[in-house]
Amino acid sequence: MSDERLDALEQRLQALEDERAISRLIAAYGPLVDSGDAAAAADLWASEGTYDVGDWVMFSRADVAAMVESEAHQGLIGRGCCHFFGPPVVTVTGDTAVAVCESVLMVRGDEHGYRIMRAGVHLVNLRRHGERWEITDRTARQLDGSGRAAELVAVGLRGWGR
After folding, report:
1. Is residue 161 pLDDT above 70, yes or no?
2. Sequential DSSP letters for 60-83
3. Is the pLDDT of residue 5 over 80?
4. Signal sequence span per UniProt (predicted)?
5. What region does 137 belong to: left with phi over 0, alpha with psi -120 to 50, or beta?
6. Are 141 and 154 in contact (CB under 8 A)?
7. How far is Cα 20 from Cα 26, in angstroms, rounded to an integer?
8. pLDDT at 160 over 80
9. Which of the 8 DSSP states describes residue 87?
10. With contact defined as beta carbons under 8 Å apart, do 99 and 126 qualify?
């Protein structure tokens, strides 16, 4: 096998490993916040990473941990909730990446089932930090017909499939 071909295979393998690691990171968020693991959820972010949920912006890991520990979030856990994220579309460019995915928040209404409380889009910017990926900023917008969620999708898919 030529050096060029080996280099190309290594690059392709690295891209697949990066996309898988980022997909797993995004998928971990729901189970972590639904189980109340504030420290592990916060550790998905860079120390100065932001999380903009529309009407509230968190500016650090500590802010993300405080959100999970908050009375409002703990109330969701106590009622029974599920933050479910669809598979992300990930674009890796060297040591940075962007991902976009949709989500739903379901909360147990009564003994007969769950209610969908929110449906939204998440635009996630990440960077490689040592051997792992971390979120530098994440923006969530509701699928409410306003077009703000569609704007995030357009940004998230801009570099996809190049």
Report:
1. no
2. SHHHHHHHHHSHHHHHHHHH-EEE
3. yes
4. none
5. beta
6. no
7. 10
8. no
9. P
10. yes
